[in-house]
Amino acid sequence: MLNKYFRVIVGFMVLLMVGLTYFVSINWLWFGVFIGINMIQSAFTKWCLLEVILLKLGVKKEGNSCSSC
Q1: Could you tell me if 51 and 67 are in contact, meaning their C-beta atoms sit under 8 angstroms apart?
Q2: pLDDT tens-digit series, residues 12-66
Q3: CA–CA gap between residue 35 and residue 61 (Å, rounded)
Q4: Is 42 helix (H, G, I), strand (E, B) or coil?
Q5: Distance between CA atoms of residues 31 and 46, nearest Å
Q6: What is the end-to-end Cα distance of the chain in Å, rounded?
Q7: pTM score above 0.90
Q8: Cβ–Cβ contacts within 10 Å for residue 42, how many?
Q9: Contact (CB, 8 A) for 8 and 66
Q10: From residue 56, how far is each of 24, 26, 29, 53 by CA, in Å?
Q11: Helix 2-23 and helix 49-56: axis angle, to 10°?
């Protein structure tokens, strides 16, 4: 379940970044850079801030998490 929430939230953030970049300011691309860097670091460190937040909110960890995708 954690993996599903993670993918939905990150997908929404990427789409939000694209929309804000197109309609508001090119500087919103930095939000996408942050998302990408966070995903890369979680692949190497096996630590993901979004995973920590979702676990504290009570989402059950079943199978793969964002740090092991």
Answers
A1: yes
A2: 999 999 999 999 999 999 999 999 999 999 999 999 999 999 999 999 987 655 5
A3: 22
A4: helix
A5: 21
A6: 13
A7: no
A8: 20
A9: no
A10: 33, 33, 29, 5
A11: 120
